[in-house]
Specification:
Blueprint lengths: L2 E4 L5 H14 L3 E5 L11 E5 L6 H9 L5 E3 L3 H9 L3 E3 L5 E2 L1 H19 L12 H17 L1
Parallel strand pairs: 1-2, 1-4, 2-3, 4-5
Antiparallel strand pairs: 5-6
């Protein structure tokens, strides 16, 4: 298993959890972003900077991940691609995307996009809470233990 991180919008506290887990479990982990990233010195953790542009990092991850890899992303279309390609995907709040819930999430995402494009203020997601951090760490541990 390889962990891929859609790092452009991944919260720092989630990256820190990932860094500790990668070291503890010796799991290769790659952060992909369109800007330079700081990662701790480790033979298990690296970062890749891709070109700026819409979905460039997402496409990079989707094209390079393998069946059974884990992708950390809040991007619903990327999560759908990961599932279609046989991978696992969780968001920074610890919610596992799967074949059952991804269609519903895509539908809701598209609906919210339509609202925003028509001028409706929808707000953004709330800040990552301590409960979200714990849920993410627990889900990550479960998935890494299964490998």
């Amino acid at each position: 298993m390889h962990i891929w991180v859609d790092a452009d919008a991944c919260p720092k506290v989630i990256k820190e959890i990932l860094f500790r887990a990668a070291e503890r479990t010796q799991t290769p982990t790659t952060l992909v972003a369109n800007h330079a990233l700081q990662t701790p010195p480790s033979k298990f953790i690296n970062s890749l900077q891709v070109e700026h542009g819409f979905d460039v990092a997402d496409n990079f991850i989707a094209q390079r991940m393998n069946k059974g890899d884990l992708v950390i992303t809040a991007d619903i279309p990327l999560a759908a691609d990961v599932i279609k390609n046989g991978g696992l995907a969780i968001n920074p709040r610890g919610q596992l995307y799967d074949e059952d819930n991804i269609r519903q999430r895509l539908g809701m995402r598209n609906f919210m996009e339509e609202l925003r494009s028509s001028g409706v203020q929808t707000g953004g997601p709330s800040a990552i809470s301590q409960a979200d951090r714990q849920a993410f760490a627990n889900q990550l541990d479960r998935l890494l233990a299964k490998r």
